[in-house]
Fold this sequence. Notes:
Blueprint: H1 6-32, H2 46-49, H3 52-73, H4 78-91, H5 100-119, H6 126-141, H7 173-190, H8 201-220, H9 228-247, H10 251-266, E1 270-272, H11 280-297, H12 301-313, H13 319-341, H14 346-353, H15 355-358, H16 371-376, E2 390-392, H17 396-423
Antiparallel strand pairs: 1-2
Helix pairs in contact: 1-5, 1-6, 1-7, 3-5, 3-8, 3-14, 4-5, 4-7, 6-13, 6-14, 8-9, 8-14, 9-10, 9-17, 10-12, 10-13, 10-14, 10-17, 11-13, 12-13, 12-17
Amino acid sequence: MQQRSPVQIAQLYGSVASALVGGVVAAYAVAESRVDDFSFSDDGLTSVVITPQWAGATAAVVATVGVALLHRWGRGGLASVFAAVGALVIALPAFVPVSASISVTLNAMGAGTFLAAAAYPTKSHRAAQIALALGVTATTLYFGAADLWRDRVARWSLTLPGDTYPVPSTVPVWILLAATLLVAGVALVARSGQETDDVDTRLVTLGVVLPLAFTALYAWLGSTSTSHGSWVTAVVIAVAVTVALAWRLPQHDARFILAGLAIGAVSISSISFSSDWTWAVPAVGAALALGVAVGWKRPMPQLGLGLLAVTALSGLLDAALTTVAYVFVLPLALGLAVASCMPVAVGAVASGSVLPFTLTLFSVSATFLDPVSQEFGWSTAPLEEHRPAAVTTPIPLTVLAATATIVVAMSTIHLKRVRTAVVT
């Protein structure tokens, strides 16, 4: 048997490792940049640009534009430059004092640029696309597990006059350095196998319009002071816009965008772990790997989305059952849904993967529909230093809306498949 050259090995396995690491780093940076007092600000534009919604939308738009640029003019190691620049921007607060309010936008731009670089070698590479999508989505959904190995530094935007309250880098510099060497190196090696071609403007339009539309809906109808009716209206409009833009795409690309919408909806409940539940993290990883293995051999996207719907609906049940669903069922569903949808266009995998942190009507706004949360502008979850794995679930209305969103995504995927089959 002919042995593979080092370049071939790097292209075969390096792209998977690069995509996974790049997705994790980008998603972690966006989640970690969350300002602790964003719900207290009512200072016009400032109250929007310090929110998780703004961070996610900014990262998504930058990633979309970056992917399009690399897709069209990607030769000459431009992806490696993107990786280095993105990492440098994320690490900037480690070297220059940066306030929390400014760091949200700055960090998001770096994360989006880094994600674009990680996505570059995944063209027509199913395993790498799965790795990228799972790196982003799993990190976003299970970000609470980060509390097991780090003490989060508070990030405050409201400070005394003259006090900028500088914040640290969202990702440790040494991790950024290692990740940059991997992502940039793989992109540099993979560039010879990439061919520049025309950019699908439909994907670029979706990747830019959706984050901006979600941000407008958040500011208009879904902010932390929203009412039940306004929030439901925002969700309906967001889902309708996503379905309309996804419907214009090729079947496989549309399917993954809608899967990303469903994954975003399941973030209606959030999970956190204590040191006593460290074992749950490998359990999540094992369930995720099982889902990927099944989806790789026998793609079943509808089953994956169906399990996502069951997971979201479990928020109406007893807390213990909800925790079981989010620890064991959710990662299985996530791995199955993502693996079953690949391969797709690079722009689709990037835009679909970021939907969970781009559409924060479920993960952020819904938590403030509880009257107590609106009054204090904070989570109503009990503050305990040592507690088992726990899932924080908002009011039943939001759980039902999230479940309905997943059902709409499933139905649209089915209708799109039927329509495509009839046309062909």
